[in-house]
């Protein structure tokens, strides 16, 4: 099972429910690294939107079933004589943590980056997959049941 926690995101949701929809002039904390997660067969797939982030500015670490994704969006190298008029895209280091359940194989995570989307494939551990167990009877016959 894939678990995530972001206490500030939950607080934002609560505030939006309590105070209603966003009104002009109010500030809402943007999510700099939005993600989707879903199960596909024997693996979980997690996709992070990281537009404008160079692949060498992405770090993935796993420690004690906690997967940390860090990405840095650096300022554009505009060169000399360029005067920036508008800067709305957030810059800096962004980080998300996912808590991986014991049923996932953190040693075999695969990562790919294409078109500004970081995709992680996290396989389900072999010991967590359903399997058949053979049950023998006193006679010669065998019977299969699901475990």
UniProtKB/TrEMBL annotation:
The UniProt record lists the SHSP domain at 26-138
Q: Which InterPro entries match?
A: A-crystallin/Hsp20_dom, HSP20-like_chaperone, Small_HSP
What Pfam families does this protein's entry cite?
A: HSP20
Family indicated by similarity: Belongs to the small heat shock protein (HSP20) family.
The molecule here is called Hsp20/alpha crystallin family protein
UniProt source species = Kribbella hippodromi
């Amino acid at each position: 099972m894939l678990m995530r926690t972001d206490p500030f995101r939950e607080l934002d949701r609560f505030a939006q429910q309590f105070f209603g929809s966003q009104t002009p002039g109010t500030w809402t904390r943007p999510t700099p690294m939005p993600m989707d997660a879903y199960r596909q067969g024997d693996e979980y797939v997690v996709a992070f939107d990281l537009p404008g982030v160079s692949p060498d500015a992405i770090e993935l670490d796993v420690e004690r079933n906690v997967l940390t994704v860090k990405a840095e969006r650096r300022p554009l190298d505009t060169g000399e004589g360029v005067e920036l008029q508008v800067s709305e895209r957030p810059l800096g280091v962004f980080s998300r943590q996912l808590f991986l359940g014991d049923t996932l194989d953190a040693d075999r995570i695969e990562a790919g980056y294409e078109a500004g989307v970081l995709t992680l494939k996290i396989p389900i551990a072999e010991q967590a997959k359903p399997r058949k167990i053979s049950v023998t009877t006193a006679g010669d016959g065998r019977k299969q049941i699901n475990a």
